[in-house]
Prior knowledge:
32 strands; Glyco_hydro_2_CS; transmembrane; 12 helices; lysosome; globular
Amino acid sequence: MSGPWIISLKSVILYQERTVRTLQVKVAYGALSLIAMGLIGFCIHYAIALVILNREISPTVGMLYPRESETREVRSLDGLWNFVKSDPTNPTQGVRDKWFLDDLSRVQDTIPMPVPASYNDITTQNDLRDHVGTVWYDRKFFVPRSWANKQRVWLRFGSVHYEAFVYVNGEMAVRHEMGHLPFEAEITNLVKYGEENRITVMCDNALIQTTVPQGKITEVSRDDGVAIVQTYTFDFFNYAGIHRSVHLYTTPLTYIEEMEITTDLAKDNNVGFVYYKVKANGTAANEAVNNLYVRVQLRNKDGAIVANETSNSDLKGVLEVQKVLPWWPYLMHPDPGYLYQLEIFLHGENNELLDVYRQKVGIRTLSWNNTSFMINGRPVYFRGFGRHEDSDIRGKGLDLALMTRDFNLLKWIGANAYRTSHYPYSEESMQFADENGIMIIDECPSVDTENFKQELLDKHKSSMEQLIHRDRNHPSVVMWSIANEPRTNQLNAGSYFQYVANHTRELDPSRPVTAAIAVSSNDDKAAKFLDVISFNRYNGWYSNPGRLDMITKRVIDEATNWHKKHNKPVIMSEYGADTVEGLHLLPAYVWSEEYQTELFSRHFKAFDTLRKQPWFIGEFVWNFADFKTAQTVTRVGGNKKGVFTRNRQPKAVAHLLRKRYFALGREVDQCNFPEDLFTYIADVGPSRNAKHDDADL
């Protein structure tokens, strides 16, 4: 425990004991009034509420991304499922009436619902869009007879928001709380082989003060009764449903359960090292551990084996790669995002091949100090975005076409990074970032966190543990973000975020820890526990709206104050202005495309001043694209701060930002300009043959 406002558990216990003894004495003498007893009881309750303990979190097990191999099969359960919305005033009816024991269509009228997708915008019904509480899905599937032969069957969900209860043939298979993260269960003994099976999912979208993220549920009177209303302070729509793919897959009885990969470089980045640690589980793993070993080999992009090794029974080791091709971020190298393929062959007694799993690996190093962040020994200047997984109709559902478009736009505009604001993104998008050399600040679902209590801390730490377990092997992940705009000026914020930050470092010391902070540096209690300080500020918008002359100096001063106070690298993680596509006003006026362009330009001036100091390491626009929010009078169809529209078309500022990002890439990383960066304007005589250079920008 630390900080003057935190009462230790021991102090509380002693205080309680003294209070009880005092009460016993005074009651014996009949001298204590009821008012005094009430006050003491309140003090005890308040003191206990202030106590936060750093409790252990149950670790995630398994969760390898489903991939086919010589020993594994994968089947998708994506498609149209049957769907039922519960009565908001009776959300547990389906559990009490055991809807999971039969087809949903036999107990309620169902509608078709696509998976993966948010359910909110699929129909034309506002009561489904704004629904609070539980919904139910089910579908049928076959399991082939061949799967019954000496293997295990698993059911895996990429994400269900927020809480999921999964039944297979009427039996509970798994329960999971936390949107945006995967979960799975072995269902070998729950399925019928060579027959039809049924999967039923109950999804609950309710957010309260002990969920991550937080929310509140209230009852509000309406014209014909009472409405259940979900409120939250975060500025994006609380989409819900089965958001990512559902898979059936098999493993052998003894199988590769998980692997942990770390990398290093030496000799001026000419020699690479891949450290692997494999965990096996199953029959042979439990009965004959010493007989297991793994044969590991690494292939380059051409398929040639560049390193191989056979482990001892501890299933770990290191591969050395000569003339290595390191993983570089986009625009830092002519061949960014170079990936090798790591092949793991698990062998048992008599050299029997038990399981095979393949994982792509990028070989790179990360390092940081109080003035810089480096990859492969070279300083990095981040230029990117905060984003959202958000689109029309599908909501937060996995959309591979949209994801591909987004990465094309990221590369078109010259960005080298983004933050997964404000929750973990799909595993497929993480793989895409690996392939394209886009650096990721990986953020957990904690947003606008307040009321720092024990149950919330436990779930917050669990969200970080699940995120790190899922994403630790991605070379694109270069930083962990433990929160967005938490109320770090509140009473318990210091100890709370010290625990979360330290927990994150214990899980992965190879990456720095950050958080996007919105309170002032004078009031904040959390930044001292971070490795990199990220701050959000909307000068010219929420602060002094319309005043373009009140931006540049304020940005410089705030960034400087953060560094002076904590002596750590600083990133501006959010800035921007809502902009209505096609609204043009001259002189520039709020909500117009001209105003967004001018506001960005004033920030660019601040960033260029700050870049003269090595500790200022990045600029992130808010937001990549327009996105949906809850209905308010300040949001016309959602948040309009996007550089791109919600259907991924550029606003005027996108072309300005593109020129800046490529200019920075030319200066910092010596990249080339795209041929279409400049638009022909005029033949100006003697200089007509002049070539473009940095001065043109």
